[in-house]
Specification:
Blueprint lengths: L1 H9 L2 E6 L2 H4 L18 H4 L2 H6 L1 H16 L5 H12 L2 E6 L5 H4 L5 E3 L2 E8 L5 E3 L18 E5 L8 H13 L2 E5 L10 H8 L3 E6 L11 E4 L2 H9 L1
Parallel strand pairs: 1-2, 1-7, 2-3, 7-8, 8-9
Antiparallel strand pairs: 4-5, 4-6
Helix pairs in contact: 6-10, 8-9
The structure holds adenosine-5-diphosphoribose.
Length: 236
Amino acid sequence: MQRAREWLREARCVAALTGAGISAESGVPTFRGAGGLWRQFRPEDLATPEAFARDPRLVWEWYDWRRGLIAATEPNAGHLALAELERRCGRFTLVTQNVDGLHDRAGSREVLKVHGDIWEVRCTGCGRAGRDDRVPLPDLPPRCDCGALLRPGVVWFGEMLPQEVWRRAECAAREAEVFLVIGTAAVVYPAAGLVDRAKAAGAKVIEINLDATPYSEEVDCSLRGRAGELLPQLIA
Ligand code: APR
């Protein structure tokens, strides 16, 4: 922890990649961890264009349920610590796989949402996109004024990541002197690949995670524990 603090203090350019684990202490279930409530809905089965085409109502019932759950949560000390780090660091870029919006609510200003945003909806017909944070949604599946189905503004398995957001995320990983990887099982690509890019570019990589991940042996410092406890200590 001491070494990690020193690297962070000396770094002019820092980037962070977060996953579901940083929102776990707010009460948002993870996908693969022990407490994951989504367990009965394997994301690989529902978060796909095929599942939506087959049964848009079922997919929307899952997202509407998640939106309701997320709306009842607050950012935790881990989210707040990253917002504080952004205020202190010369250059800090936050890349998140999370779609819950808790980093924004914690005060982080620049959040690269590489898997989209659960509060965004997009028309499958006319393509119009916008924020809709009603919980619960009045009708499932919701429809656009043009009559076509609306879909959640999230990236599903097999879909491209938002290109401009991804380009900025890759750039941040390459330029970071310190790269924090927080609360992610690091098994979903290309997001997990940002760790390799940061390492290849010579960054000090610090992992904060409750369990071991495929990167735990490779990072420069692996802190095992809760993000809500370790992040405030790291930036203290
Ligand atoms: N503090 C730190 N880490 C935690 C905590 C916590 N309080 N609670 C759980 N974790 C860790 C778990 O040990 C696990 O390694 O967070 C990780 C969460 O992993 P996943 O549930 O797989 O979430 P994530 O890695 O973000 O999933 C990536 O997969 O389903 C898709 O698109 C979805 O963005 C998601 C992507």
